[in-house]
Amino acid sequence: MAEQDRMEQDVGFVGLGLPEGLLKAVGELGYEAPSPIQSKTIPVLMDGRDLVGQAQTGTGKTAAFALPVLARLGQAKSKPAALVLAPTRELAIQVAEAFHRYAAHLPGFHVLPIYGGQAYGPQLAGLRRGADVVVGTPGRVIDHINKGTLDLSGLGTLVLDEADEMLRMGFIDDVEQVLSRIPDSCQIALFSATMPQPIRRIAQRYLKNAEEVTIEAKTSTAASIRQRYWLVSGLHKLDALTRILEVEPFEGMIVFARTRVATEELASRLNARGFSAAALNGDVPQNQREQLVDKLRKGEIDILVATDVAARGLDVERISHVVNYDIPYDTEAYVHRIGRTGRAGRAGEAILFVAPRERGMLRAIERATRQPIEAMGVPSVADVNEQRIARFKAAVANALETEELDLYREVAQACQAETGAEMVDIAAALARLMRGGDDFLLSEREPPANFAPRPERKHEKQRRPDRSERPSRPRRSEDDQDKATFRIDVGRSHGVAPGNIVGAIANEANLDANQIGRVRIQENFSLVDLPANLDTAVFRHLARVRVGGRPLKIKPDKGPGHHPKTTDRSQTSDRPAPRGRRHTDSKDRRPSHPDKPPRRTRQESSSAPEDRERPKPKDKRPPRKARKPENQSGEAPPRKRPFQTRAQKKAGHRVRKVIKK
User: How many angstroms separate the CA atoms of 57 and 342, rounded?
Assistant: First the structure.
């Protein structure tokens, strides 16, 4: 099998039947030989057959479908000839840029990315001008189809890129809507790193005689990525990250945090410590996101502190390090995170911060990646101080060689003449002033470097502690503590499923699907667990999002007592109990008063002698007035109604009116 792959690669792109313009563009981009997925996929798609391709990220899937799509384009049309669905806006932009590079020598070619978070105006203008290829996220593509601004009647090829990611993010229903609206003659290519059952079901339902191509990778992560972990102990994570940044030589870096608030706080603290950092999360507008990525690419900033979804699809050559400041929720997220470095054969570094209670996830990651992750030690105080001194010496040497120092020499000589100090002391004072009063070197006092938390116990069953010794309840996990329950105004009666809710919230709030907790659908509303620190702007936006034709109107849940339900009138009535009826349920259970004798039971009362004097309570109410005599008709006078508030009177009036009708 390996020999066959090698022979197919030796043929090169020329043997795949690509036109001259594409071959020229591929050569200019530095492609020498097709990857295994490209050599097996391109001929199938060139023949117009449907295809199911299974390969890991970073194996060249984009070129595998983009080159044959470009090769089969006909004359310019007003309707798109190809549509590519991608799970995230970042991946959609990346795929559109790849199409643009490959079509450098195809005159008149137009590709248009459409995705949420961008204004409709530029997208509508691009669709009116005409685009040969449209690359978009499922939600925005459905919007344009429903508005009639995206016409799929002339579609020749549909590509589903990273279908398993679209399934995981809750977009699979939108994908099926698109599949149901394309022409019967449309060619379909489905690419996925994994093949869960829902993806296979879609392939069997919509693809016709599809060719299956599977590229098995020895590991799910690039061999060029060096993976290390630090077991969080003794030091705060921010201090540990600062030491790593000071000692590790790096070009560009992505630091992954779980929440938007964490990205902003961490970026702010890194900037305060002298590093060039910026936060990249779902609250950052799309144009600003593109500017941040461009600044990282140009070296204007060195560190992006990002969430999973915000950083997905980034391909910046400067990224040499990926730091998992917060451990990911699952192994797939870890693979996607560290895939931002070590791309196209470049060397990369991946560092993972692991708390003692997270060691189980560390082992799961090692099993998923099929690679051991080596332990690392945080640089010591001596290492950091050595690097600081070395950088200071280099800065001084550079200034001596490149800067004009005549004026400063005169100032230094004048200071020496006035103070009588040695020139070396004057230089030291200037260096101290240059530091702005900050401590130049770290303090030698630090936590023990070899702090070892208690090893994990497999089955440590000793005597069962008494109830007083046991804690009242187990402590909730950090994920549960960071979540809160919210109520949305769509439910079972509106025809929604959990996938619709998860997909809408994940797409519109830029949340990873794993950040969305339990979804409980009721008849007319639903409850969903979300991160408790969502910003107000996100809430305002989600309140206008429509699912099942209704706005979500999301708001914090106040508990079962505030859920809409049918109330029983007998439970809420304020009318007094009928006279003569003894209610002993609550009175007989009240605690005894030290000044009162205990209340006798019914049996004791019946068996007591009649002449026995009952004890009188201190606060005995005055006797009731005697009942008025009957009137001439022989009927008792009407009983006086109890006092009612105005609201109670109105409610009773409405009830009587309904009964009469």
Answer: 12
| CB-CB neighbours of 579 under 10 Å | 7
Q: Where do the structural domains in the chain lie, given as residue ranges?
A: 2-214, 225-380, 382-434, 478-562
One-letter-per-residue 3-state SS of 38-78? HHHHHHHHHCCCCEEEECCCCCCHHHHHHHHHHHCCCCCCC
What six digits make up the tokens of 560? 């079962």
- 536-540: long-range contacts (C-beta < 8 A, 24 or more apart)? 537/283, 538/282, 538/283, 538/509
Under CATH, to which class is 478-562 assigned?
Answer: alpha beta
Residues 225-380: name the CATH superfamily.
P-loop containing nucleotide triphosphate hydrolases (3.40.50.300)
Q: Report helix, strand or coil for 228.
A: strand
In CATH terms, the superfamily for domain 2-214 is P-loop containing nucleotide triphosphate hydrolases (3.40.50.300)
Read off the amino acid at residue 383: D
Of the listed ranges 4-18, 92-106, 234-248, 312-326, the one predicted with least confidence: 4-18
Q: Are 99 and 159 in contact (CB under 8 A)?
A: no
Question: Which pLDDT score, from 0 to 100, does residue 137 have?
Answer: 93
Angle, helix 331-338 to helix 359-369, in steps of 10 degrees: 70
Is there a shared CATH topology between the 2-214 domain and the 225-380 domain?
yes
The Cα-based distances of 551 to 170, 172, 494, 542, 571 in angstroms read 18, 21, 11, 8, 33
DSSP string, 102-114: HTTTSTT--EEEE
Could you tell me if 339 and 367 are in contact, meaning their C-beta atoms sit under 8 angstroms apart?
A: no
Dist CA 88 CA 136 (whole Å): 8
Report which listed range, 262-276, 455-469, 480-494, is most confident. Answer: 262-276
What single-letter amino acid sits at 271? N
| Alpha-carbon gap, residue 155 to 145, rounded angstroms | 13
Handedness of CA 51, 56, 62, 67 (dihedral sign): negative
Structure tokens at 458: 């497999």
Kindly report, residue by residue over 558-576, the tens digit of the pLDDT.
Answer: 777 666 553 343 333 344 4
Distance, in Å, from the CA atom of 564 to the CA atom of 524, rounded to the nearest integer, reads: 8
Give which of 163, 138, 511 is closest to 310, Cα–Cα. 511
Question: What are residue 461's DSSP bridge partners?
Answer: none
Q: Is the pLDDT of residue 378 over 60?
A: yes
Read off φ and ψ for residue 540, nearest 5 degrees: -60, -40
